[in-house]
């Protein structure tokens, strides 16, 4: 409820008008049975044959009241839809912005599928609930309380009989709704798991088939699917017991009322029309109770979804933004790692005691076995994560003190699994960065050795399939490199980006980079010595540590690991 109030608060003015109309519209429903009783007991018996005008007169009043009620309800319902749509649009925007500001560690913790389903399913639940609560939240209590009040006017004794059944209904509603909240939360967790499995299956479809893992994946999917359905069933079955149970209790009450009504009619305390009105009020009250149950169900869903969304919105700011502007000071190292250690899971270091310095325009090469921590160094420099120990400095200033956005905008990072979007090649390179002109895109294309673009019929306008499926691995890489270069970064980091390029293209790319981007500092992460042998400094990494550093020539003398790698990759001739 808290979440819904919070969502509706900004619309209180419109809401006051629409809820007032909703209340008035609901009240009109309460007048009609009263007029029916009046018609049956007073108007019809006193109408003279040949003069039926009084019947028409009351009928017209009834029609007008019903019409007014209908109009007010339509207006209120439409407004409710508009308000909920607007509120949820705002909420989605808020959640989206927050997700954008989450650190990579927090995203790892939430997991991506869970973030997606919170952003979609949970906000949709809240949309339904805010609409439902506006539609029924006022109408149901008005009909319930108003129905009881009007019944009192008709016959207090019969009303007391009817009221006696209400606490039972209330109890059922309360118990089941209380059970519902944890059940709906559980459903979401299970659906998250299912989404994760499907996502992995779809993204990894080719490798799964290639390794004949389809059966295993199917079994995993079946299990998650079964669990999700089990959760759904449990929640719905619990909730589904509510209606028949309530119907039974209400019907029993109705029987009681009719029996008592018959006695009271016999004794002359009530008239026939009163009994008709009473039964109608009873139905109105019954419907109101049902609606209140639905509101409870909606609220329990909304509470579960609201809590999951609040977890995102209230997540603390992990990566605190700095305040300083970047000041270029080429006397100081462009990048300095000073005894940096870091652990992803806070249990064991993934990189340990890393120290090195490189100056503007220099090239740093990083080589090492898989999992040795190469990408982690970049993650820390980009402030996707913050160091556990030690300090990283940018022109002498600790990167924590710099504005994160400024820092990241200076770095052109090319990851191996970067996304090609289903837009044109031009849009993929320009990437909505307004300062990048056509000339920059063309220049970047040239440096990145991506001239194959011009061989395509529509050149830059050629549309890319999702994830760049209509490109080869090497073509994809070159577009990604062009994207990074077009931003004219101060630091260019192709993270294993040249692995998909053939030797010749890789060489041409490096040559062009050195010629045209002499002032750009480069960090080349590669498995091939040939890709980084001209670097000013090469780090050889193993199990999170730097086991050797120096230039290619120095390392050939000082590092056995490097020597061995060179021998395997380049043959004795080039050593
Ligand atoms: N998000 C993460 N959460 C937990 N552990 C991680 C995460 N990313 C990487 N690691 C772990 O940190 C270690 C270093 O990984 P990193 O990606 O830096 O290696 P790498 O040298 O770049 O490997 P590769 O050459 O295969 O890309 C590995 O043991 C890896 O399992």
From TrEMBL:
InterPro entries linked to this entry = AAA+_ATPase, ABC1_TM_dom, ABC1_TM_sf, ABC_transporter-like_ATP-bd, ABC_transporter-like_CS, P-loop_NTPase, Type_1_exporter
Q: Where are the transmembrane segments?
A: 21-40, 52-72, 136-154, 160-177, 244-263, 275-299
Q: Does the record bear Transmembrane in its keywords? A: yes
* Record's keyword terms, sorted: ATP-binding, Membrane, Nucleotide-binding, Transmembrane, Transmembrane helix
Q: Where in the cell is it found?
A: Cell membrane
| Chief location category | membrane
Membrane topology according to the record? Multi-pass membrane protein
| Residue ranges constituting the ABC transporter domain according to the UniProt record | 335-568
Q: Which domain of life is it from?
A: Bacteria
SUPFAM superfamilies for the chain: ABC transporter transmembrane region, P-loop containing nucleoside triphosphate hydrolases
- What's a single GO MF annotation on this record? ATP binding
Which Pfam families does the record associate with it?
A: ABC_membrane (PF00664), ABC_tran (PF00005)
> Which residue range or ranges hold the ABC transmembrane type-1 domain?
17-301
Q: Which family does it belong to?
A: Belongs to the ABC transporter superfamily.
**Protein name according to UniProt:** ABC transporter ATP-binding protein/permease
